[in-house]
Amino acid sequence: MQSDTAPAHTAPAPGARTSGAPGPTVPTWDPGQYLRHADHRARPFLDLLARIPEPPGRPARIADLGCGPGNVTALLADRWPEARISGFDLSREMLERATAEHAGPTAGGGSLDFHPADLAHWIPEEPYDLIVSNAALQWVPGHPGSFAAWIGWLRPGGTFAFQVPGNFAAPSHALLAELCESPRWRSRLGGHGARSVHQLDPAAYLDRLTGLGCTADVWETTYHQLLHGPDPVLDWVKGTALRPVLTALGDDRPAVEAFLDTYRELLREAYPSGPRGTVFPFRRIFAVARRDA
Ligand SMILES: C[S@@+](CC[C@H](N)C(=O)[O-])C[C@H]1O[C@@H](n2cnc3c(N)ncnc32)[C@H](O)[C@@H]1O
User: Fold this and answer.
1) How many angstroms does the Cα of residue 275 sit away from the middle of ligand 1?
2) Region Disordered: which residues (predicted)?
């Protein structure tokens, strides 16, 4: 089911509106802040990787969609050192970090490279053995609508595998959404702080992937993460869920501080710190879909 035409990968400028106003603003990302919790964030990717079967091609051709700072992309090269691996992302900041730290030849004669792309419009330009995405598709409206095209570009026996957070009803996100919608912040954020949720339930992903003729394995896991340091949940979301708010408030430091002060108090109540740290439960949804050989 490969398409004959392959549109070029395109990406709007960081901080730009994705379409005509009013519309969502593309958040700016901070790789340093994001990587402060790199161990907890990489764990689900390792759990996903453990379920991915061997790719049909040798060397394998692999795409990592929403590769971020490239540290989990590099884990693909650890497993398949001969593979040609490309990471795609919308964020200039993330791509710069990924390229600086991970691009180049790999130990087994393969390669890692990174490219700008908006996953909302990304179509492969060549067949892949594995298309993978970790903690990125929840930012992409309508992403299940792209599954048919992505799976269609897999070689027979190839795999499409992804992980998305499933914790949007958790206090961390519910309190953030409430705060964004409060009278004080609603007009200030102009609708660009509150983030929409683009994630299906596991059963819906399973239905979608098997409906496309794949052999699919879908599951969910809640990680009971023990975080350390002061206000660690706030520190975590500063790297992810808060990006749209921080982008919308921009250089207005008093507004940023006022927003964070209120949100910090709400999080302290929802996630009290204990003698051994702060427990931050985090549900995640996984899918591994194999195209029949
Ligand atoms: C939470 S980070 C995950 C990064 C990496 N996959 C990891 O597991 O560490 C989400 C990434 O998705 C990217 N992203 C969000 N929307 C995107 C889009 N429409 N197209 C491409 N990348 C996007 C962001 O720029 C960010 O780097």
Assistant:
1) 34
2) 1-30
